[in-house]
Amino acid sequence: MRIQLVDTPPTTCPYLPERVSISRFVDPMTMLDPALYGRLLTQGFRRTGRYVYRPHCPRCSACTPLRVPAGEFVPNRSQRRNWRDNQDLEVAVLPCAYHERHFELYARYVGVRHPGGGMDDPDPEEYWRFIAAAWCDTRLIEFRLDGRVVCVAVTDWLREGLSAVYTFFDPELAARGLGSFAIQWQITAARLHGLPHLYLGYHIADCRKMRYKDRFRPRELLLGGRWQRI
């Protein structure tokens, strides 16, 4: 199947502001499904809402697709402690549907974590356009503390593995490391379901906010068109 790709105009990179960013999108008229998206995922594409893209920046290759082999993941000491400390959370896997409690948590999260970045004043429709894709098998992993939702991991379930789309949590519980716990939970879920990888989006070595991805080992990066163990 031949896929038409469309480039966005150049803009300031949201991760490395001194650089120029261009994204290459799959033509929105393309009939996408989980099988096609799974193949695109292995080629370095991601999705935002129903749109599928990958970076295509001039003179820059900082954004490198990263995945974790689920069956080989070995938590370090900090991750083992994080796993133990969050065992009091209840976990529910929900179909992809709008929940007001999720939106309220998301709004609080982006308001604290991304102030002034364009994401910090969302409305429900904008939030749902960012989260959902009708053609994809997406599930919402809900983490509750004493019955209250404190974290949601938006996760695509594909034959190639799980893809961590976005995770948001109660900013007042930052010390719990809920983002790290959600990643470990997704790796464990992939392994238990016989899926080979957890896809974690893009690794950007020079971006402080992305360095947490370095901690999940072993890891594989898509370099020169080939997934390589780093």
- The H/E string reads EEEEHEEEHEHHEEEHEEE
Task: Look at the structure and give the CATH class of one domain.
Answer: Alpha Beta
The portion of residues assigned to helices is: 10-25%
Whole-number mean pLDDT: 95
Strand runs, count: 14
End-to-end Cα distance: 32 Å
- Rg of Cα set: 17 Å
Poorly predicted runs are none
Task: Describe the overall structure.
With 230 residues, the protein is α+β, with helices and mostly antiparallel strands. The protein has a domain at 66-200: Gcn5-related N-acetyltransferase (GNAT) (Aminopeptidase, 3-Layer(aba) Sandwich). The chain has five helices and 14 strands. It has an eight-stranded mixed beta sheet. The protein is globular, with a radius of gyration of 17 Å. The two termini are 32 Å apart.
Helix-strand layout with pairing:
Layout: E1 5-7, E2 11-12, E3 20-21, E4 23-26, H1 34-42, E5 46-48, E6 51-55, E7 64-69, H2 77-85, E8 90-95, H3 100-113, H4 124-131, E9 138-145, E10 148-158, E11 161-169, H5 178-192, E12 197-203, E13 220-223, E14 226-229
Parallel strand pairs: 11-12
Antiparallel strand pairs: 1-4, 2-3, 4-6, 5-6, 7-12, 7-13, 8-9, 9-10, 10-11, 13-14
Short synopsis of the structure:
With 230 residues, the protein is α+β, with helices and mostly antiparallel strands.
Characteristic key phrases:
alpha+beta; 230 residues; 5 helices; globular
